[in-house]
Design a protein that fits this description.
With about 260 residues, the chain is of the alpha/beta class. It has two domains: about 150 residues, Rossmann fold, CATH 3.40.50; about 100 residues, Hypothetical Protein, Haloacid Dehalogenase-like Hydrolase, Chain: A, domain 2, CATH 3.30.1240. Helices cover about 25% and strands about 25% of the residues. It is built from eight helices and 14 strands.
Length: about 260
């Protein structure tokens, strides 16, 4: 019996035009009638995700920043905060990488320095602040993730940043993004946090994803579903492969598996 469903956003629930499936509000209502909780799980920040669900936010759980924060009904129920000295060291080294841009992700906003062009960050970071002294962020917020942007990140940036894997979680979050977080942080650890909070066994959870940052989430649930457009390695690691994000694969699979008629 499915009690909790979690889905990635970009490449999974959202189509290639970054649109929600038209039937999603009706599906969410049907799931709530059955007592099934629904979590959106993304590398995006919480405030950015809120903007995608203007009328549905109170009915959702938000796993944001690739599992580094969880919000429910407007309350921050978990933060995987990074230590200030570690962030400073990483920033100093990332600044030396050719073609790399970076963002310090907090629970209240995302932050970049005055020497950076904010255009690369606007789509995924609605709440974005530009600081004269970037490290004053620690006077106002907790940093839970460093998001590093670079074209063709899987082959250019990711191999370089993997040298930090002994101290941090280094997560390939998309074609152009690599995230650094505390080693215990992932979408999977966030899902396990919710399982513990609501006493839901893993076998009663279903998850959908398309990229390698979804891998731990797949491993944390009994019913793991890779999208038809997913990374080949995620398909191999998942129990099922469903329709693509442009074929409403998430909605179609939930309707079929839970025998829901809208």
């Amino acid at each position: 019996m499915i009690q909790l469903i979690a889905t990635d956003m970009d490449g999974s629930l959202l189509n290639s035009r970054k649109e929600l499936p038209p039937r999603f509000p009706a599906l969410l209502k049907a799931l709530h009638t059955r007592g099934v909780r629904f979590a959106v799980s993304s590398g995006r920040q919480y405030t950015n995700l809120l903007g995608l669900f203007p009328d549905l936010a109170d009915e959702l759980i938000f796993i944001a920043e690739n599992g580094a924060v969880i919000f429910e009904q407007g309350k921050n129920i978990y933060t995987g905060a990074m230590r200030e000295n570690g962030v400073r060291k990483l920033v100093e080294e990332i600044r030396l990488l050719p073609g790399a841009q970076f963002i310090l992700c907090g629970t209240k906003a995302a932050y970049i320095g005055q020497d950076q062009n904010p255009d690369f960050a606007r789509m995924f970071y609605t709440s974005l602040e530009i600081l004269e002294d970037l490290f004053t962020v620690f006077e106002r917020d907790q940093v839970c993730k460093i998001a590093v942007f670079c074209e063709n990140a899987e082959h250019s940036l990711y191999p370089t940043l993997r040298r930090y894997e002994t101290e941090y979680k280094v997560c390939l979050s998309g074609d152009s993004w690599v995230d650094l977080m505390m080693p215990e942080v992932s979408k999977g650890s966030a899902l396990r946090c919710l399982q513990e909070k609501y006493s839901i066994p893993p076998e009663n959870c279903m998850a959908f994803g398309d990229y390698l940052n979804d891998l731990e989430m797949m491993q944390a649930c009994g019913e793991s579903c890779a999208m038809g457009n997913a990374h080949p390695d995620l398909k191999t690691a998942s129990k099922y492969v469903v329709r693509s994000n442009d074929e409403d694969g998430v909605v179609e699979e939930i309707l079929r598996r839970l025998e829901i008629e809208l």
